[in-house]
Amino acid sequence: MEDLKQKTIRGGLARLCAQIADFLLRLGSLMVLARLLDPKDFGLVGMVTAFTGILNLFRDFGLSAAAVQRSTVSEEQSSTLFWINVLVGILLGLITLSMAPAIAAFYREPRLVSVTAALAAGFLFNSAGVQHSALLQRKMSFATLSVINTIGLIMGIGVAIVMAKAGYGYWALVTMALSTPLVITIGMWLATGWVPGRPHKGVGIRSMMHFGGALTLNGVVVYVATNLDKALLGRYWGVDAVGLYGRAYQLITIPTDNLNSAAGQVAFSALSRLQDNLVRTKSYFLKGYSLVLALTVPATIGCALFADDIVAVVLGQKWRAVGSIFRLLAPTILVFAIVNPLSWLLSSLGMVWRLLKMTLVIAPFMAIGYFVGLSYGPNGVALAYSTVMTIWLVPLVKWALRGTIIAPRDILRVLTPPLASSMVAGGVAYFIRIAYGQWLSPIPRLVLEALVLVTGYLIMLLFVSGERSFYIDLCRTLRSSSATKASKILSVENTGISTMEL
């Protein structure tokens, strides 16, 4: 069990470092591509992915998560799951091809036919590496996963920038969407060295299919609910509206997406190993939850207070209209930071059907909000989205935790220190902005705001809120883990030397 703790911390650190790199790469690519391409280029690709992205949720039918959640998985089961994934990938690619004319007709944009047809190949690229990724997750080889994903992203971004500079416009974005999963899948195969065998019948994958099916259906409903806004804006307000709203949405989801991706894989793998030990499950979950909140809550405050400077620095002056949309969407960072990690707990405990019920209840309210705000354009839709999610926050938390070992008071206890610290630090940073920011250009002003916010937040969190001991203990465990790993490596090397000497 101690080995699991050390693997979890090492894996979490590896994934966090990778997601920081991912964040910087995506942010850097967005800054470069936003200056090389026009809003229409982003809007064209966004129109297609609003439809085809939902099919991407079916590429593994939740079977990778089912394989990780199981205590044991046989070679026959892994091989069978691989071929199911490949078959699904081929079917999804064909469905996408058949949808191309309908998507172009819906938006009244003929160029979308070729864009949709090209993106269809991505389904096969993704599905061919799903089970290889699951094998690495079961082994908790998150450092390897992180390196592969980072390399894939670098390759995709590099190709996109070269093509954008060469004048290929939106095709640069299409190529990036295809090359990234292709490189990642190749890396997964090379890292695992696993070659799947033939598929088998009667190897006990029916229950895994039920688990994966619930997760997939939940993902589909979530995707529809969170992309209907873009589809409606594209239909009634045009390409420019989708481009502006899409960039604001992309900026606002970077903190939660990256952190939840980093922590989610590690937490799900670790909690799945502990599902029969509820006391340790509670301890592991709350510690991971505390770390996620500590990183995302100040990001929420920063985005809300300094939206205009963030947009000016990241996207450039021609995207100034994104600032108001970005600010209106800021509350969703906090909402998703609080709610999303609860899915780790429910999934690891096998309570995926509760997740689905929760999603089915809230999705219609999100859709109603979009329609109410649609007449006011991107700003109205953004305000409606944030309002609905904020209203539903407390009911969702209570529903998710009912009957589990975690209580709502545990969530409140973990949330209070970072939230209070962020609000105080944000107030100080905003005062500094008002007092001195008027004499600075956007880049140095944003640097000043960020430094004051982060410094004030750390002082409040570590010394005023009393969280210092938690992070000191975490660092000690990490050092102990690193020392243990180094000792094992040295022991193996010494054994090898002795054997050769004999």
Structural features, described:
By secondary structure, this protein is mainly α. It has two domains: 37-204, no CATH class; 239-486, no CATH class. It has helices at residues 2-36, 39-56, 63-69, 75-107, 112-119, 122-127, 130-138, 142-165, 171-192, 206-237, 239-273, 278-305, 307-314, 322-329, 331-339, 341-348, 352-374, 377-401, 408-436, 442-464, 468-501. Helix 11 (239-273) runs antiparallel to helix 12 (278-305).
| Poorly predicted regions | 486-502
Count of β-strands: 0
Helix coverage percent: over 70%
Estimated share of beta-strand residues:
under 5%
The ordered H/E elements are HHHHHHHHHHHHHHHHHHHHH
Computed structural class: mainly alpha
Number of folding domains? 2
Terminal CA distance reads 36 Å
- Report the average pLDDT across residues: 81
Shape field: globular
- Radius of gyration, in Å, reads 23 Å
Number of helices: 21
Biggest beta sheet attributes: none
Give the helices and strands, then pairings:
Elements: H1 2-36, H2 39-56, H3 63-69, H4 75-107, H5 112-119, H6 122-127, H7 130-138, H8 142-165, H9 171-192, H10 206-237, H11 239-273, H12 278-305, H13 307-314, H14 322-329, H15 331-339, H16 341-348, H17 352-374, H18 377-401, H19 408-436, H20 442-464, H21 468-501
Q: Main attributes?
A:
disordered C terminus, 502 residues, 21 helices, mainly alpha, 0% strand, 2 domains
